[in-house]
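Handout, page 2. Input:
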Amino acid sequence: MYREGKSKPSRSRVSFSHSTKPNLSLSLSLSLCAKMSDYLPRETLINILTRLPAKTLLRFRCICKSWLSLLSSPDFTSAHLQTAAAKSPLLLLHGYFLTGLTPRYKELYYLRSDDADFTSLLDLHCPFNTRAANFFRVVGSCNGVICLSDDLLGYTYTVILWNPAIRRYLTLPMPNICFDDYGPYMFSLGFGFDPKTNDHKVVRIVYLEGSGRVRGWVVPPKVEVYALSTGVWKTIKGSKIGYHMVEVFWSSAFANGGVHWMAYSGGKSTGYCNVVLVFDMGSEVFREVKLPEKLVGASPLDLAVTGYKDTISIFQYDKRGPYCCKGFTVWVMKEYGVEESWSKLFTGSLNGGVSTVLGFRKSGEVVVEKWDGTLVSCQPGKIKKMRIRGGKESFYLGTYAESLILLDEGKCVQTEDNGSSDEVASAGNASVVCSLEKNSLRHHLFAATALNPYAGFMNGFE
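Output:
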């Protein structure tokens, strides 16, 4: 391009406007890259390419066959992921928020830097619709892949693995255990990675409803695992799990090669016995992690497990339920697997009440959702507002790093109008919000009733 009043460049020079010659300019750039790679050692070339964004690497696959083979190889995918993970960690924030001049709730996924201001970097725009008039539950985020489940209302079987960096996704097949064949059930999901086989897996724990004299959900549950490498659900036989999980409020945390859930046995009349139930992604075997003595007999409704650096943490609520919870306590297992290393990190309380404790930042601060749907960042003796407000109990917080996973297995994301990739085909509007808020209360009551089946205060609730 040239400025007015200046002479035009001679024809011997190449000068393109990006808006008028984009394809030719890109072709020349790719051709130049291919030529340069002929003079670079393979190790140097890989070192350069692993530092590039995933979206850029998708374009580089068309340079030549050797680059296509390199960028599609599992070894390069692993090397690229390690380089991305070594950078400053990003936080994935999910929730539904009021947007637009005409207020409406929309499901959004944000990438934010874990700095002092929690700076927003990118809106990932979830392009999927739930079958129910609701929003997705985020099961977990691992190696740049987000696992979503459409399970908050009714018996639905939609589980999606989504890599937003390369805009590819995979919808898992129908699981083996479903309502049509087994009747009513309650289930929990977990998502993680098997480092021994470089395979991502989803584990599904299903509690069938008892009949006759057997009330509630039956133990042991049925267990099935989906492996990305095989593409099918496999039933895990011989799993003798003698514990229940908190209905509706279940959450999982992936750490040290295993998925962790809060689990319990007993009841309010006989006393609870709580543990952390772990499913090892490599051996596909369950094990238990004992809790601090003060948490073993607590109400399981008041406990939640999350990841903390290379280990796990427990959030203990002050009487969580349909009524306002005033505070929480944070427990950390300082050395993973060593029961004696459990330590109380701090206790916090908030004016206006606590809804959900979401997770940790790299500074050690805890992100908490208040009862009114606003987020704050807490540490001992200090509470900082984050200027974020969304739908109550809609938030998820986890770490995120770009990757090329699902490049071969996944499908390209398509929007409803086949337009720009930035268009959103997401469920959610103001008319749905009342239903969501009402179901939030219903979930609290349902979970409390399940833990104390003789309470009976669900009768007549509509």
